[in-house]
Structures are given as C-alpha cells and as structure tokens.
Inverse folding.
C-alpha cells in the first residue's frame, strides 16, 4: 500500500561510466525527459542469476525475463515470457508452460524451450554458495517438446511453484553466453527483459536502455534508466535533494525522513510515498560456534532484546517491532516470539543462563553488512550492543563488512551471530520459512528440523488455496521461537522519495517489492 505526498523538480546529472557489458547506445542526455535516475543502496553482488539469492534481483527484474511475473498490483503470477502456464494434474506435481512466439535475447539468439531448460538446469548444476538453488529444491527435472513447450516435473506437490517461476532466481539466460556448469564471465549480461544493460560500473551505476526486441507484458513508460548505487544512505538523500537523482528506493535513512517530509509538505519539491513492506530483519545464530550452540544463550538473548526501543531509537516511523518470521500482512503471521518470551526481561534472561550453569557474561560477536541495507545498520547493531551489554549478561562486539565479504563469510559458516534482511522471493508464508530451514538454505547455516521440512512444508504445499495454510505455518513458527536460531527484530516501512514531476511510483513495486523501473516516467514526457 502506498501513501503519497508532495510537488516540483531539478535537472538530473548522470555519472559517467565505461561500457563494460551488454548492448545498446549511450544513455539519454540530461535534457531527455524520457530518462530516469534512481538511487538505491542495494547494489548487485553479481550479474549472473545462478549466483545470487539477494538484492541483485532488483537489477535482474528489469534486464532478464521470467516465465511468470506479477502484473500491476496483483499478487498472483501471470505469464510473461510464457504465453500460458498451469498444472496439468490435481496433485500439483507437473507444471507446463507454452512460450510466446518469436522471443529473442538482446544478442539476437532465440529464447526457446531449450534456453528455459538450460537456465533451470544450470542453477542446480552450478549450485553456487550464494545462489538460489535452494529455491528449486522441489524441481526434479525439466523436459521440452518442440521450441515452445516446457514441462517441469516436481519431486512432490508444490502449489508455490508458479511463484518461483516469477522470481528473478529463474531468469532465463542465453545458452550460448552462460555455460551449463560454470558462471558467466564477469561483466556479462545478456537477457530478454524490458531493458538492455548499456554499461555497468560495479558498485557505482547501471545504465539501462529500452530493449527494442522485448516481447513481454511490461509497457515501458521511459526510454532509459540510470541506477546509482550508494554505500552511504545520507549521500543518496543529498543526491536526491540536489537533483542528481529523481527517485530513491531502499536505504533511505530514518533520520532524513523528517526533512524529506518537510520538503514534501512545505517546499513542494519532493513527493514521499510510504510503502507497507513485507521486508523483515532478524538475527541468525550458527550452532557450529561456541555460545551460539547453547539454547540457553539464544533464549537469553531473545528475552533481553527490546524491539520497541530498537525501533524507536534507530528507525522511528520506518519500522515496527516484529515477533514472527512471517511479517504482518502475509497470511500465517503470528506473534510466536512474543508469546514465547514476552516483554523484554533481563532478569528472566539471567535466570535462564543461571539454570544452564552460565554465571559469567557471555562473549558474542555480532556481524552485519555495512552497505546492503543502508548505513543505519551500524546504528542498529550498536543499539543491540547497548541493550545486551546493559543487561550485564553479555559482552558484545559488533563488526561490519561490505556485502560481498559479509555474504561469502556467512555462507562459509564463519559467523556465530549475524544480521540479515529478507524481502520475499514471492508473497507467500512459505517463503519466510523454507529459505531458512533444511540442509541447504539461504543463510549458509544448515537448520534441519524434520517436522518443518518433512511434514509442515510438504503438507502446506499441497494446498492450492494459500489462505488455508495458516495452521502449518503457525506451528512452524512455534518451533522457530523455541529453537531461537532465528530471531526476528523488525519489519520495514519503506519510503520512496521522488521529485514531484516523476510519476508511476505507486505502480513501480511488484508483489515481491522489487522495483519495475519501466513504470517510472517524467510527467512532462507524457
């Protein structure tokens, strides 16, 4: 849901970049009213979809194509590269898609059934540490018939499979460019999406141009987009106010929201849209490490942390406390962690540790990424340190790393405790439980619980009516709360700030909260 305020605008300036990959000409000039500049703190970790289960999907959505997508404000997947898709039986184990005719990649190669099969097979074959192979866990094999028919055979019933086909994890890539058993050369990007990648400077800017060969459901409202990647949230806000960018998304610092609200209401220069987000933030405990392996320590942390104070002191109106791995607004949301631990209670935490024979302060190092979710993350972890140290029960050290090093380390199991954020691959409660459990998951930290992975999830996936799975997910969250290996902290309220001559903001986020750049446009250009 969007709440918008605001009105006016200043000329934009592009960051010059060198041509590294992709097709197309140089981006439009500053005077071209059909060009949009977007700022974000979510830079891609890689350009190859087989290697990313993270914020790289923001770019993928705009340059690659998937069989399905979310149309308009809908939350039910609709065909995109596919002309039609559906289960062929009542057991939700065989899913067939018929492709649109005459699809091509940006290099002119055909996008056919063989390319679709290649794209899925290589994700599983490469099985990259940071990749989305875990999302395809239910896929047994892919078969083709002719150039346009693809059939997916599943190991077990999975009513969520259409949602997976709408996720950028299943981006379709060119077999000639992307090897079957290895990642593509660095800087390579050949897709069939609404835009081509005209140039890319890692960690700085991606220049997108309208793909004249695109055949899909998106209707482009602009000709080109520059996505500027910022390490510092404050610098991104300054760039917006100076007119260097038109729109900001992800990472807007909470302490800058009031001045943007003033710009919206008093000066009329900025339009501010508040989005109710299904994005969650949480702590992960890796029981392969000392102290994180202790149920008593995990319970004590859960009892000691004050989410209300964390949100109030760090995030203000841009977040709300979260007591469930499934956020408010998604079916299956509960308050399992509040039900289990109640209000913050250091005395109860002390009793928990004492019963386990732990009488000295517990040393814990908390790790976070310094650039993925905005520079405010450092403040969040300092507040966690303040709370836990203040209880007298812990001796906390806080350390931050840039995303690339941070993700590589947690996927190797190097951290005892670390913070993560999660935006859904698809808007279903399954996607807040399944990615974090099982031997292979999105956290690089095996979490094997037979009741969740062998009973609750399989039972829920047989249910085509996704509103009818609350019982299974309520029970799953009771298990998560008792184990306390995952500790939800807060749910985001995202703000999108834009100069008031930019339209389409309210249509720009799909059901998985990924920005569709093609919906943005200058009002003067239409």
């Amino acid at each position: 849901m969007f709440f918008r305020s605001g009105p006016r605008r200043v000329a934009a300036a592009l960051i010059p970049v060198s041509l590294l990959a992709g097709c197309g000409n140089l981006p439009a000039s500053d005077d071209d009213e059909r060009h949009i500049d977007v700022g974000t703190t979510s830079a891609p970790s890689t350009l190859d979809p087989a290697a990313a289960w993270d914020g790289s999907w923001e770019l993928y959505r705009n340059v690659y194509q998937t069989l399905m997508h979310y149309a308009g404000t809908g939350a039910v997947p609709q065909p995109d590269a596919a002309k039609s898709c559906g289960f062929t039986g009542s057991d939700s184990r065989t899913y067939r898609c018929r492709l649109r005719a005459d699809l091509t990649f940006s290099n002119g190669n055909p996008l056919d059934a063989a390319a679709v099969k290649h794209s899925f097979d290589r994700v599983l074959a490469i099985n990259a540490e940071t990749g989305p192979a875990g999302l395809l866990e239910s896929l047994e094999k892919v078969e083709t018939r002719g150039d346009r028919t693809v059939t997916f055979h599943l190991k077990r019933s999975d009513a969520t499979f259409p949602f997976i086909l709408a996720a950028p994890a299943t981006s379709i890539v060119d077999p000639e460019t992307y090897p079957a058993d290895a990642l593509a050369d660095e800087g390579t990007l050949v897709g069939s999406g609404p835009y081509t990648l005209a140039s890319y400077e890692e960690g700085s800017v991606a220049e997108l141009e309208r793909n004249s060969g695109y055949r899909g459901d998106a209707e482009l409202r602009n000709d080109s987009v520059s996505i500027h990647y910022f390490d510092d949230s404050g610098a991104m806000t300054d760039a917006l106010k100076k007119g260097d960018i038109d729109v900001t998304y992800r990472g807007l610092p909470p302490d800058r929201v009031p001045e943007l609200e003033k710009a919206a209401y008093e000066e009329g220069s900025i339009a501010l849209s508040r989005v109710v987000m299904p994005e969650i933030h949480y702590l992960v405990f890796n029981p392969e490490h000392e102290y994180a392996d202790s149920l008593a320590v995990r319970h004590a942390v859960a009892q000691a942390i004050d989410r209300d104070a964390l949100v109030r002191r760090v995030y203000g109106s841009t977040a709300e406390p979260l007591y469930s791995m499934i956020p408010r607004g998604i079916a299956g949301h509960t308050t399992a962690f509040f039900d289990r631990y109640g209000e913050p209670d250091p005395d109860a935490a002390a009793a928990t540790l004492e019963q386990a024979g732990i009488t000295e302060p517990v040393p814990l190092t908390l790790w976070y990424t310094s650039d993925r979710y905005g520079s405010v993350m450092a403040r969040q972890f300092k507040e966690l340190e303040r709370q836990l140290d203040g209880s007298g029960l812990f001796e906390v050290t806080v350390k931050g790393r840039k995303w690339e090093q941070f993700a590589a380390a947690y996927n190797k199991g190097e951290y005892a405790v670390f913070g993560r954020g999660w935006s859904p691959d698809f808007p279903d409660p399954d996607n807040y439980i399944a990615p974090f459990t099982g031997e292979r998951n999105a956290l690089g930290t095996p979490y094997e619980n037979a009741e969740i992975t062998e009973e609750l999830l399989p039972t829920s996936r047989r249910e085509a009516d996704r509103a009818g799975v609350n019982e299974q997910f309520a029970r799953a969250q009771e298990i998560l709360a008792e184990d306390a290996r995952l500790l939800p902290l807060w749910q985001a309220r995202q703000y999108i700030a834009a100069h008031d001559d930019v339209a389409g903001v309210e249509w720009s986020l799909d059901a998985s909260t990924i920005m569709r750049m093609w919906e943005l446009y200058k009002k003067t250009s239409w």
Q: What stands out?
A: The first helix runs from residue 57 to 63.
